[in-house]
Amino acid sequence: MKELVEILAKSLVDNPDQVVVKEIVEANELRYELNVAETDMGKVIGKQGRIAKALRIVLKAAANKEQKRVSLDIV
Question: Is the Cα dihedral 61, 34, 38, 12 positive or negative?
């Protein structure tokens, strides 16, 4: 799933080489931290957070298939 977040984020930004996805494993949840360049932050979040919400929905759909809990933080 880390690769999924990375591919989606790189397709949205102007500086794909600065996209970094960090996977944090907690008790019963996977947490992903997405770091992008400051100039690309708006492109990942979108107007009123629509793109960020869509990224989270896709990630949760993939996680639901594997019966896992996930969250995505954009840092």
Answer: negative
